[in-house]
């Protein structure tokens, strides 16, 4: 059985995956409205509402009913500047966004986590990702879809040297560890949004690649 999301809330629309997902949503005839708060303005579109500012400040101002929420927020420790700043984005902001989406009526949250997410991990990055997943589960969503992609492949506005060096290798490693194109991930996220499967689903990178073909 499938649901058709009509009113969408999207965080991270200017990111590598978020921009591809936004383009797909705006070209879906079943989508009536996309509410996408961003720090910099997006190109105008008749089905797009684009509040501009810091997301944490914008959250209380968002209005209107939504049925599905996508969270494509994500950073790195280097990009954020510190472990504390990274956690503020990749845990606190994501959890706050999800809570606001639930208040606005969303029944399905789809969030991009990371391969290896584990609240008990000794690796700080993986630990924070895992703790975020646990915090979202605690919100008791009717439907929660957690995507765990491997290294995201694609052209970013900002350079990430480590990803650039790893990308050629990650295109060829086997199974779920192989890198995944952001366009493929965006297609997978949309297809997952159309599925009615109550409860929590965790989709690993190899499954995401199949769904996004």
TrEMBL record:
Organism (species): Pseudomonas marincola
Gene name, Swiss-Prot/TrEMBL: yraR
Residue stretches spanning the membrane: none
Name of the protein this chain belongs to: Putative nucleoside-diphosphate-sugar epimerase
Signal peptide: none
């Amino acid at each position: 059985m499938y649901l058709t999301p009509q009113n969408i809330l999207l965080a991270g629309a200017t990111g590598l995956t978020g921009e591809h997902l936004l383009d797909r949503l705006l070209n879906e005839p079943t989508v009536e409205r996309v509410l996408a708060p961003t720090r910099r303005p997006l190109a105008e579109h008749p089905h797009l509402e684009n509040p501009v500012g810091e997301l944490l400040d914008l959250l209380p101002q968002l209005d209107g009913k939504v049925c599905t929420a996508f969270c494509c927020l994500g950073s790195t420790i280097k990009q954020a500047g510190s472990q504390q700043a990274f956690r503020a984005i990749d845990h606190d902001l994501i959890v706050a966004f999800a809570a606001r989406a639930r208040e606005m009526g969303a029944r399905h949250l789809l969030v991009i986590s990371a391969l290896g997410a584990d609240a008990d991990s000794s690796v700080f990055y993986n630990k924070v990702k895992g703790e975020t997943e646990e915090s979202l589960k605690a919100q008791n969503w009717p439907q929660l879809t957690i995507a765990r992609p491997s290294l995201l492949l694609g052209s970013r506005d900002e350079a990430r040297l480590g990803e650039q060096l790893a990308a050629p290798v990650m295109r060829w490693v086997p199974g779920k560890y192989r890198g995944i194109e952001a366009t493929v991930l965006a297609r997978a996220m949309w297809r997952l949004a159309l599925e009615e499967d109550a409860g929590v689903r965790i989709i690993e990178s190899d499954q995401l690649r199949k769904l996004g073909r």
